[in-house]
Amino acid sequence: MDRVSMAEAFVFGRFNQIGDAKWRTRAVYHSHAVSLLCALLADKRGLDPEVAAIAGLLHDLYAYEKQDYADHAHLGAARAREVLESLGLTTAAENGLIASAIYHHDDLTLTDGPMDELLKDADLIDNALSRPARGIKENESARIEKIRAELGLPARM
Ligand SMILES: [Fe+2]
Predict the structure, then answer these.
(1) Could you count the other beta carbons within 10 Å of the beta carbon of residue 16?
(2) To 5 degrees, how large is the angle CA 92–CA 94–CA 40?
(3) Ligand 1 centre distance from Cα of residue 30 (Å)
(4) Distance between CA atoms of 6 and 140, rounded to whole angstroms?
């Protein structure tokens, strides 16, 4: 089994233990969507699609396990590192990239490293672009325009 599938088996195994159906469904849907978008954007940006896909799978694991988004990026980075070290699928350098991306993924108005930016963008596409009726938050609009331009989509404004 490849590394992404092994990480997915672990993450979805955890999600299957979530009792609340709404949280459980959202966890599976969102984590899968973000992982796929991470792999796609990584390919486009010359980053490692496998590492990106694993970051996407793990990025909200902490929030779903706790059913709480409070400080989930920072706390989730530590949780992801713990999972990565126990799974042993990734190198120390890859663990560092993934933990950093998760740590920064809620800081939409800051520009961080390439893998950090990739996770923010993948998360935002699923949260905003795939749900036009949700509306765009103030801290998301500049990033959304940048993603749309990168993907060759027309500007909203
Ligand atoms: Fe997310």
Answers:
(1) 10
(2) 170
(3) 7
(4) 32
Fold of 3-150: Hypothetical protein af1432 (1.10.3210)
* Tokens describing residue 98: 């993934």
What is the 93 CA–ligand 1 centroid distance (Å)?
Answer: 23
CA of 100 to the centre of ligand 1 (A): 15
Question: What local confidence, expressed as pLDDT, does residue 39 receive?
Answer: 98
Question: Could you state, in chain order, the average pLDDT of each consecutive group of 10 residues for the chain (157 residues)?
Answer: 97 97 96 98 98 98 97 98 98 98 96 97 90 87 94 86
User: What is the per-residue pLDDT for 133?
Assistant: 87
Cβ–Cβ < 8 Å for 33, 126? yes
- Taking the centre of ligand 1 as the mean of its atom positions, its distance from the CA of residue 31, in whole angstroms, is 7
Query: What is the 108 CA–ligand 1 centroid distance (Å)?
Result: 12
Q: In this predicted structure, what is the pLDDT of residue 157?
A: 62
- The CA dihedral of 49, 53, 56, 61, to the nearest 10 degrees, is -150
pLDDT at position 7: 98
Distance of CA 36 to the CA centre of its chain: 9
Convert 130-148 to b/e letters by CB count within 10 Å (16 or more is b): eeeeeebeeebeebbeebe
